[in-house]
Input
Amino acid sequence: MTNVNPNFVLMVEDLTVSFDGFKAVNGLSFEVEPNECRVMIGPNGAGKTTVLDLICGRTRATSGSVRFKGKELLTMREDQIVLAGVGRKFQTPSVYEDLSVFENLELSYPRGHSVFGSLFFRRDAEVKTRIAEIAETIFLADLLDEKAAFLSHGQKQWLEIGMLLIQDPELLMLDEPVAGMSVAERKKTAELLNRIIDHRSVIVIEHDMGFVEDIATRVTVLHQGQTLSEGSMERVKNDPKVIEVYLGH
Amino acid sequence: MFADYSMGELTAIFAMQGFAGLILFSIFVLMALGLAIIFGQMGVINMAHGEFLILGAYVTYITSHVFQDVMPGLFSIYFFVAMILAFIASGALGMFVEWALIRHLYKRPLDTLLATWGLSLILQQAYRSIFGAREVGVTIPDWMMGSVYLTDMIEVPINGLFVMGLTVIIFAAVGALMFRSTWGRSMRAVVQNRTMAEGVGIDSEKIDRLTFGLGCGIAGVAGSAFTMIGSTGPTAGQQYIVDTFLVVVFGGAGSLLGLVASAFSISQAQSILEFFLSGSMAKVLTLLAVVGILMLRPQGLFTLKLRK
Amino acid sequence: MLIDRKSRFLTREEMIGFAILAVVIFLVLPLALDTFRLNLFGKYLTYAFVAVGLVLCWGAGGILSLGQGVFFGLGGYGMAMFLKLEASTPEATAIQSTPGIPDFMDWNQLTALPWWWEPFHSLAFTMIAVVIVPVAVAFIIGVAMFRRRVGGVYFAIITQALAAILTILIIGQQGFTGGLNGITDLRTLKGWDIRSDEAKEILYFVNGALLFACLFVAQYVRRSKLGRLLIAMRDQEDRVRFSGYDVASFKVFVFCLGAAFAGIGGAMFTLQVGFMSPTLVGIVPSIEMVIFAAVGGRLSIIGAVYGTLLVNWAKTTFSESFPELWLFGLGALFIAVVMAFPNGLAGLWSEQIMPRLRKRTGGGNGAPASPAPVAGLSEVRKAAAE
Output
């Protein structure tokens, strides 16, 4: 279990968190390989979002270890984890409503993240070009000066994805990226996601099985904070344990 | 520093300072109880809490004069009448303030703080205009005067004992109300999950108003008790507001047990230090210690896991 | 293809706002007022330093400190200690039982200058200390609180407690601090009589210039990415963290900056008014400084200056003629500014007056048309500095 494979981007070992005795995640272990797209599925309350929270430092683990490229994340602050190269998209779109689309993207640009760095941050040609590029990718090029508050739900989701893109993380974690979207938006988003998960490792939580089948390299099924089944979509789909949990009695 | 005192004297000093601390403790508990309900349960910062307390004190002052002038025969029991009137007056004003001011600001706690500070200035000036800037005192009924001698060196004043007894009764009543009554259940339900509480048919606006009113009413009773051991002035309430907030925060907002523990430790520390240092240094050191501990442990002494 | 998105230091509207304020402070007030009144307005302007710092901390960053009086006081006391030492030469204090120490120390039976007073013989040290000491205190408080993610009302209560503690300490230790009376009877600065009319006028202009320096610093911060981060943090602290920013250190920075401004204001107060006392440190002055910023508009640094002038002018006028009414008025102001005008004067200006002016002049003043007014708070931020 402890064979440290340097080829893994992320190694989660025996991860456990307990809230007042209730173990939301219980002895979970899994690895993510470079360029892998890992999809996590499972019934409500299985602990999927909590796993992402634990990896990105939002919730403190009770025990276990999460190593990103060999670095232990559990002792790091959220911002340090982000700067190390782990990006996270939340379930509900969370963008800065009072700032413009341009400014939203600019804040995620990976430069000037210290106090004085941000005080003397210059909006040079490089920054502007990069933001224009990203805006093009996320279908918001015409809305750069719009306040984020005025965007539609789908546009906010795209903006948040754009904020992650500009950050250029090696490991990207997406929590239900197509939830609450219209059919047209959903299609566009799937296209967008397919493009951006190309050169990096990704962990996705998703319920839309068609979408999952489309993007997943491997699937992990969580149940009551533990791995129920793991492997290719094909294998997981035919696993009797999974069928039992999902179809129930 | 202890060398000048004999063992017996030291014991007596500690006992008497400890008792003085117990009176301070009672005041803290009485003041903080109302705040613990308003701040601890509702999350509302009421900077005018001290003024609600003083309202209770002035009501007691008026009642004592009415009894003196109109029915001097019943003077020995005026205090109990005054206490009820103080509860009604402060509670009613509290419910009015909740309706006029607080309910519009539930989502803006920092603005509530500023608005209630404005309210406290207005109340202070109102007291000054009505009762004058000088402090007023009430005549204590005869049976409350004097002291009890525990040993020949240790004496405790009866009015202090009375206030302590009162504190115990009020505390027990509030505890029962919060954890045994229907209102208490509704209030805790609203605190934990407003939407859900509304869903099961609790009128959350009414609960808010009653809760705020109750907190203010308790402050009024505290003010009433306050007159038994000290005089009342228009700005007396403001002098206690910092201590009271610290007591509540230090105890861990929302926990009645924490409130008692924190009021006890702060009052004891202060009154024992007071004997060896000047009063102001005792207070500075106590407050600094509390602030220091709060910086290390912001959630206070006792607390339930707070959900965000 | 893209609109030029240079982060300009001042927009056209802001430039006009700064220019008008400069005219008011450097021309209108000095020409319209006699030395006594001008000195009074100079005193008001020292509070504006605090108010500008509060706009950054509270308006932009969402951190409400009710203890800004602590920093104002630390700056003011630092300057007062220097001036007091200069006024307490052995010759001038020959009648004391210990000549050469400040008079209040002699009254309190002190026979030697406390060690921590010694460095305040030096003007250079004092000038550094009036900024560094408040910043150091703010840094300690900020690190302790913000690292543990204490904010909101808890932070407000703790800072208020600190204001109370410092006041009690100053009053209690009167041998070292001058007690309730404060440090009074200050005369000269390096031999220059600060009580003369001429000195008062010069100090007024020095004060104005320093205030403008602070305004420019504040403007720079607001215009920088840090300024946008503060707004982002106020609304969605968690998201900022997950964009890779250490939220606490940004809060510490802006809190320290506010403390530095307050310290400078305090030092200028001492110089212009000629004394420093605990009545400027405690709970009441600290929270009043918040109302100055709120009346001006919590999001507008220039509004904060006007708010300070207006409230203080009203205070002086009313408490001279109707002392009873003033507290009612001030109390009502606290309530009104929260309930009815959360954006203060700046809000009134940009939401009421500006649109009307635009309509009258046909909107042809070159300023970009702002989108429909939605969230009141966010609108002002754009046109804030007017």
Observations:
- The beta strands of chain C are 188-189, 192-193.
- The interface with chain B takes residues 58, 64, 66, 141, 144-145, 148-150, 152-154, 156-158, 160-162, 164-165, 168-169, 171-173, 283-284, 287, 290-291, 294, 324, 327-328, 330-335, 337-339, 342 of chain C (CB under 8 Å).
- Chain C is about 70% helix and 0% strand.
- The longest helix of chain C spans residues 197-223.
